[in-house]
Structure formats: structure tokens, C-alpha cells
Design brief:
Keywords: Oxidoreductase. By secondary structure, the chain is of the alpha/beta class. The protein has helices at about 15-25, 35-45, 60-65, 95-120, 140-160, 180-185, 190-195, 205-220; strands at about 5-10, 30-35, 50-55, 75, 125-130, 165-175, 175-180, 205, 230, 235-240, 240. Strand 4, helix 4 (about 95-120) and strand 5 form a beta-alpha-beta unit. Helix 1 crosses helix 8. The structure holds 2-hydroxyethylsulfonic acid.
Length: about 250
Amino acid sequence: MTRTAVVTGASSGIGEATARRLAAEGFDVVAAARRRDRLDKLAAEVPAIRPATLDVTSDESVAEFAASLDGCDVLVNNAGGAIGLEPVAEGLVDDWRRMYEVNVLGSLRMTRALLPKLIESGDGVLLMITSVAGLVSYEGGGGYCAAKHAQTSMVETLRLELCGEPVRITEIAPGMVYTEEFSLTRFRGDAEQAERVYEGVPGPLSADDVADAVAWCVTRPWNVNIDRLVIRPRAQAAQHKVHRVS
Ligand code: 8X3
């Protein structure tokens, strides 16, 4: 029987690449995000992808979405992002709130709503896309690092709480990934600053590289739980150690 995978934040970047890749792996994919026009285009291109409008920051939207699903075997909590690079001393409450809403509470809403279906499937996988920012802190990371640390902690707690249930809990923590929007959002639309992050870096990861890791994690045998997979480009040995060529 075809298995169903739900991917949040599927309208671009890692989410879109994951939706495409899981479809190629034979899943029925529900690609969920706010921007329906983008999802519709994606679904028109890939028959195994079904578009679904979803705002993970809204209780009603998540409830409606969950009710529309017959079942769910894999949930990829991917919706998230960073806003701003201010030091904590100048942290903007609205930005922090937004980052918490999407990254942390969005994942909580989706987890609460779909966990019963994942368990019911008999071999569910809940996969959280976190970040290396969930494992280390860095200057300017402020609210994003805090939100990603919260997600990392959520994954660890879930795995303990669900031990004995037929659901695997996996985290993928990517480092530097070059996507259309991540850096642009962080720099509030300043394309030049956004590009500078990747300047001279030979081979930052692509969204496809992360999607490849997602596919590997969710296609392991039922008894194999990949707890955490940290994935960085070869040029990024650590947060502060990035090789650049001019
Ligand atoms: C994105 C990676 O290094 O910008 O999650 O925090 S980093």
C-alpha cells in the first residue's frame, strides 16, 4: 500500500525538494504550506503530490488540515526560518515571537494533530528539520538559535515519551544550505546581504542534498531510528569555520 508523507513548508527550499524526493521514492505526498499558488504548480508537475493550504501558526488551519487526511505515515516538520541577526540585547520581540510561532509552536501543533495518525499507521516517522543552530549558538543567532534549540529538545523529549509506540522520531540538523529564501528572509529581503553568506563557499548544500538525507532516514527498516543526522557542506567544518575562495 502506498504510504502518505506530509511535508510542511513545501512551497520552496528544503520542503519543496523533500516533497519532490519523497514522491520519487513512491510516497503519496501532501505538500502543505500557505502559498497555494506555488503548491499548485508543484502538484501540476508531480502527480504524486497533493497540495494543501496550511498555516502552521493557526490552530484552526492545522485542525482543518489534519481532518482532511485519511492517514499519515511520515510527517516532515520543515516549516520554519530565521528573521534578523540582531544581538540578543537588541532582539526584536515580534521577530522572536514569529520564529517561535513557526519553528516551535508550528511543530508542536502539527505533532499534536498528526501523532495519532502516525501511531495508527503502525510504522510512523516524525522527522523534524532543525538546524545546527539547534546544537550550537552563535552571535546574532539569538531568536533563531533559541527556537531551533527548542525544537531539538522537543525531538529528544518526544522520543522518550513515545518509546514503545510504533513511531520513529528523527531529527535532521542542516548547516549551510543555499536556498532561494532562507537567507533572504533572515536579511529582511536584502538580496545582497543574503548572497554574501554564501560568497566564495565552494559547494554549500542544496535543498536536494537535505531532501536526500530525509529520504534515507524515512526509508530505513521499521526498527532503525536515526536519532539525529547533522549535515553540513564540506567547506563548513563548524559554525565559525567556513572555507571560502576568492
Ligand atoms: C541554518 C543554518 O548556520 O544559518 O539553519 O544557522 S545557520
